[in-house]
């Protein structure tokens, strides 16, 4: 057990490598130029909606993908492409297509789509239709998946994210003209930005269909995923279990596990052509994502146990942020699940919407907190967390980067 007071005063070991497992710097594009000056080694940058997919792609191209295994560790970005549950209604899943197939006009299809995908009402049909009309024309799921696949293929180390389920979320009301006047033009559009909430929620069936399709894409391309889950841990587990069914892992001895990890490493290196032979091998697609990061995790210790069952074929990691996990009423709860988690499945994140000093500060704070709760020395803990991140993103951990 490390001495707390001494540990708290130690200078922070940035040189060991500190990785933000989940953040949204493209929400504030003016902060992107701060990234090269940050202490953090690399940022796992999420996309969430129509407005930020291109931005994440562009930032990764500008600042460089962090290719640890290719020893091109000069890039700072691991781009992630996914559609967040808060924007799930903007996607037309198959069930809506069936429901709207008898309707002819685009306008009518749009109204019918929102009628299916949303629950809640303003109280009468006219007001509901008026609200639905302020929403964008939905994008077919097949188009979204094609676009995401193209972006993932352009970035061989990219993840699928941010995806997930959210039972608490309600759609914001449309912008009022007077609000638009005072809107911060430096923020990437599309998010709530303090607007009042409407009575409409996206049905869980709709959210599940979108989540499942994106998890399947991650499996197909053997990418890790970053998953958001708010009041929906049971439903998220149901979606995972649908994909895991029939593929459960036989309980492995530690020797068997090492053998599998070594084999995965060889496969991965072949895919990335690390030996320079010019031969690239495609990894065999999987019906489920190989690695899952549960971001800003707030599930119960029982939910953690379910996700860590030896039969689960995905490696599930749990990521913690200061803002969501270590402030407010959930602190005790989080400490209990953090204490019970195996060392090798813990990640840290800022979950912040602006890059720069505050992001570094939050990362330092959460590393220090996790080390304290786990009884790790600051150096050991920083090393463990860095290695966990590499293993989650790239399958294998290597001692140097
Ligand atoms: Zn997020």
From TrEMBL:
<feature type="region of interest" description="Disordered">
    <location>
        <begin position="251"/>
        <end position="285"/>
    </location>
</feature>
<dbReference type="GO" id="GO:0016788">
    <property type="term" value="F:hydrolase activity, acting on ester bonds"/>
</dbReference>
<feature type="compositionally biased region" description="Basic and acidic residues">
    <location>
        <begin position="251"/>
        <end position="271"/>
    </location>
</feature>
<dbReference type="InterPro" id="IPR001130">
    <property type="entry name" value="TatD-like"/>
</dbReference>
<dbReference type="Pfam" id="PF01026">
    <property type="entry name" value="TatD_DNase"/>
</dbReference>
<dbReference type="InterPro" id="IPR032466">
    <property type="entry name" value="Metal_Hydrolase"/>
</dbReference>
<dbReference type="InterPro" id="IPR053044">
    <property type="entry name" value="Metallo-hydrolase/TatD-type"/>
</dbReference>
<protein>
    <submittedName>
        <fullName>Cut9 interacting protein Scn1, putative</fullName>
    </submittedName>
</protein>
């Amino acid at each position: 057990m490390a001495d707390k007071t001494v540990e708290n005063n130690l200078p922070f070991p940035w040189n060991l490598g500190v990785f933000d497992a989940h953040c949204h710097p493209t929400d504030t594009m003016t902060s992107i130029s701060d990234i090269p000056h940050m202490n953090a080694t690399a940022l796992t940058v999420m996309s969430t909606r129509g407005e930020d997919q291109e931005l994440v792609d562009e930032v990764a191209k500008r600042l460089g993908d962090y290719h640890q295994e290719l020893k091109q560790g000069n890039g700072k970005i691991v781009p992630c492409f996914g559609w967040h549950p808060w924007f799930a209604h903007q996607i037309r899943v198959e069930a809506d297509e069936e429901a709207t197939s008898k309707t002819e006009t685009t306008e009518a299809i749009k109204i019918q789509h929102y009628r299916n995908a949303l629950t809640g009402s303003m109280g009468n049909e006219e007001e509901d239709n008026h609200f639905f009309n302020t929403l964008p024309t939905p994008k077919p799921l097949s188009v979204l998946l094609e676009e995401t696949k193209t972006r993932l293929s352009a970035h061989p180390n990219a993840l699928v994210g941010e995806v997930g389920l959210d039972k608490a979320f309600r759609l914001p009301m449309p912008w009022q003209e007077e609000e638009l006047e005072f809107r911060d033009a430096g923020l990437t559009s599309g998010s709530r930005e303090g607007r009042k909430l409407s009575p409409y929620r996206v049905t869980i069936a709709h959210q599940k269909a979108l989540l499942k399709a994106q998890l399947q894409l991650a499996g197909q391309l053997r990418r890790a995923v970053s998953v958001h889950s708010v009041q929906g841990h049971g439903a998220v587990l149901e979606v995972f279990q649908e994909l895991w069914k029939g593929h459960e892992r036989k309980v492995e001895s530690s020797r068997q596990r090492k053998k599998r990890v070594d084999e995965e490493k060889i496969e991965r290196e072949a895919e990335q052509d690390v030996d320079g032979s010019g031969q690239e091998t495609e990894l065999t697609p999987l019906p489920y994502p190989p690695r899952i990061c549960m971001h800003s995790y707030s599930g119960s210790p029982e939910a953690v146990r379910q996700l860590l069952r030896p039969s689960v074929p995905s490696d599930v990691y749990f990521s913690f942020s200061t803002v969501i996990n270590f402030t407010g009423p959930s602190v005790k709860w989080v400490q209990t699940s953090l204490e019970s988690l195996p060392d090798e499945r813990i990640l840290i994140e800022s979950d912040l919407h602006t890059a720069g000093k505050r992001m570094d500060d939050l990362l330092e704070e959460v590393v220090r907190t996790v080390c304290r709760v786990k009884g790790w020395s600051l150096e050991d803990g920083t090393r463990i967390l860095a290695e966990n991140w590499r293993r989650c993103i790239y399958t294998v951990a290597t001692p140097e980067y």
